Task: structure prediction
Amino acid sequence: MENFTVCDCPVLATTSPLSSTLTALPSPLTVFAHGVEVNLIEEMDGREMTLRKITNLSLATKGTVIVGCTLAYYNIKRLSAVIAHDGNLIDIVDACSVSPPFSPSGWVKIFSDQLKYAVLVGGDARVNFIMQKLKGKCHAVIALEPEYRPENENRVWHLSKTYALPVLYVSPKRIFLTN
Result:
């Protein structure tokens, strides 16, 4: 988890009711919670078009789209988020702190334009070590979680306050912005 990747791409505002809170951010952002399944092997050989649909959505919205998904290739299964901007696939981010059947990633990725944002998947925004490492490296976190639990929300709020790091949290049943 010592690894951080910084990617240059235009990032991040929101088309949700939170937009008044995030007025400093330059482009529309649409975030979907988990529910999409992506098979990378089938994507590469053209049998699936899920990634193309996500990039097309980002083109249609003229902004950034982040979609939580389950990513599979061969015998590896990951809890991930696909990031697309203006019709281009920017990256796929994988969760670091997961339990079987998912395989963990060893990378936390930070995306930058005018502001720097980490995109965290699964319970990564609830992990003290990860949030501590992000302090000072980015301005905020976008966290996608496949299910909502009140205790998870409490943990995200606590770590956000502890490390003075705003979190835009998205799950199927709850969306909130800390600080």
About this structure: Residues 1-26 have pLDDT under 50 and may be disordered. The first strand starts at residue 3 and ends at 8.
